[in-house]
Amino acid sequence: MSSLPRKRFAQHWLQSEKALDKIIAAAALSKSDRILEIGPGTGILTRRIIPEVKYVVGVEIDRDLCKKLLKNLGNQENFLLLQGDILTLDLDGLLAANPSFQNQNKVVANIPYNITGPILEKLLGTIAQPANAYELIVLLVQKEVGDRLTAKKGTKAYGGLSVRIQYLASCEHICDVPAKAFYPPPKVDSVVVRLQPQTAEPPAKNPRRLEILVKQGFANKRKMLRNNLKGITSGDRLTQILEQLKINPQSRAEDLSVSEWVALSNHLASD
Ligand code: SAH
After folding, report:
1. Is residue 60 lining ligand 1, measured as CB closer than 6 Å?
2. Residue 256 burial by CB count (10 A; 0-12/13-18/19+): exposed, middle or buried?
């Protein structure tokens, strides 16, 4: 192994050619693509992407790995490595000095699982403040999270995260990746997901309200929606709106599709 993996940076080196092939195919790379890769690690994915695209910007937190990456890939003209924390690094500021590496259109990454939530928020923004920064995002994430991102209403995995992310992007499950595809194997299985950021149709009239509504609605998954939303509107008013929307008034949060959440929020917004 070229580098001893560090636990604190959630380092698990992907070893499966099959999984790498799937990630590359899902990203539908072309020579005009400008890629952001989070956590290139030993560069196993990076070296596959570089020849297919216009450029790759890699953001890697681990200084020792950065040295190795530069040694191995530093001679590639269309690769720029930035050392730092993807969550706090001022990407635009740093790229101001590197105009030929600005305006990434896709993200391709095997991300550190301990910061999946913050990375998703960084890439997609929030309901109230969508980021609208990328055309396509292909990520290797832990299966439990990936399943939530792609869950359909009424299923066990469908929750507040599903609604929030699916409001911001269409989400597709590409493939499962077993723990043994990595060194060292993580405790959990993984999946490749593809997210295509888009403006929800119809959009929420009051996105902040939708955000609060979803949070409250899923606060207690076993309770009926009208009980979870007591602090927001009366049970009678909610029953009335749900009937208007042809949604069973006995519904729980997980029974509503993303567009039904938006419709509910928009009805409440006009109260
Ligand atoms: N892409 C590589 C490594 C994935 S492991 C592969 O497929 O084999 C996750 C990588 O993210 C590690 O290289 C780790 O050092 C890096 N990392 C962890 N936290 C990070 C952060 N906050 N910002 C940028 N990179 C980070």
Report:
1. yes
2. buried
